[in-house]
Write a structure and sequence with these properties.
With 117 residues, this protein is an alpha+beta fold. The chain is 28% helix and 37% strand. The chain has a single domain, classed as 60s Ribosomal Protein L30, Chain: A, CATH 3.30.1330. Strand 4, helix 2 and strand 5 form a beta-alpha-beta unit. Helix 1 packs across helix 2.
Length: 117
């Protein structure tokens, strides 16, 4: 079975790849890190929309999402509100949300998803 890779990032990773009918979107972080958790989440979700489209799928087909928050107690409600505004009620994936020491101090959220193609 072939693997389709989209948006390779140098020698480290592809931002999305498709294998065996599943699109794997690598962890996405916000471009504008000056925003609060809600704004950063909205940015990340918009980027996920773009990457899923490149892979021939969309958010209605997400199977599983992983969310990492720098400050889960402080930012969970804001992230969750942005998520609820974005995800269709008829397409609720499984999801895990945890607190993590992210790659930079000003990154408040990172999200990765897997979706059926």
């Amino acid at each position: 079975m072939s693997i389709q890779r989209f948006e390779p990032n140098g020698k480290r990773l592809s931002h999305v790849l498709v294998h065996n009918g599943i699109a794997y979107v690598t962890g996405q972080v916000p471009a504008d890190r000056s925003q609060d958790a809600a704004g950063q989440t909205a940015q990340v979700l918009a980027r996920i929309d773009e990457l899923l489209a490149k892979a021939g799928t969309d958010k209605s087909r997400i199977l599983f999402a992983q969310v990492w928050l720098k400050h889960v107690v402080a930012d969970f409600a804001a992230m969750n509100k942005a998520w609820e505004d974005w995800i269709p009620e008829t397409a609720l994936p499984a999801r895990a949300t945890v607190e993590a020491n992210l790659a930079a101090e000003n990154i408040l959220v990172e999200i990765a998803v897997q979706a059926a193609v």
